[in-house]
């Protein structure tokens, strides 16, 4: 289970191979976030950021079968087209891999201490948090309650 | 009681500091107490820390509520809602 907060770029293919070693692995789902249009600087809280991501990973492991995973988030100066973040989840079957991958991204967006500053031609601007990101994370709570109700 | 206080993103820029050690009176030993203590400095401190809708707080790297108690040597961070991913 790899969690890394780093300034360097990453290679998705290498990470996917790394997490697919277990012979029970039948599905790997992955997500890559990319810088759109405007150069940006990503600030983080060293220590807390890594711990926040590890907590999200633990929460995912308690809900889905995860054989291995990799979460990498970059910080520092990034250009349009640069990779920002990746999540890759290996599981026996696709349903758990897809769900866990999306859950981790949705929670990372609202729980992990990162802040984006965009460098527009007219000046730099800190990005505002989006209500839609809170809603994306929130809907998993409803799902968890449903699963609890369905269990005997 | 001495605590380490960190500021991130636009809070760090508006306050002009990223980290400082604050000597806090025992009567102000909660997150809310520290916030009021800093707001009394006036100017940007009052302006930035007054709006709790845009300020989040962590104590020893865990998210904390206003009534969370503080102890000698704690690390308290003030920052805006997160925008990573």
Description:
The complex is a heterodimer of chains A (152) and B (85). Chain A has 152 residues and is an alpha+beta fold. Chain A has helices at 12-19, 48-63, 94-111, 131-150, and strands at 2-6, 27-34, 40-44, 68-74, 76-78, 83-91, 114-120, 123-126. Chain A has one domain (2-150): Molybdopterin biosynthesis MoaE subunit (Aldehyde Oxidoreductase, domain 3), CATH 3.90.1170.40. Chain A contains four helices and eight strands, in the order E-H-E-E-H-E-E-E-H-E-E-H. Chain A has a four-stranded mixed beta sheet with strand order 1-4-6-2, with helices on both faces. Chain B has 85 residues and is of the alpha+beta class. Chain B has a single domain (2-79), classed as Beta-grasp domain (Ubiquitin-like (UB roll), Roll), CATH 3.10.20.30. Chain B has three helices and five strands. The longest helix of chain B is centred in the middle third of the chain and has 9 residues, at 31-39. The A-B interface holds A 33, 42-45, 47-48, 51, 73, 84-85, 105, 108-117, 126-130, 133 and B 6, 8-10, 58, 61-62, 77, 79-85.
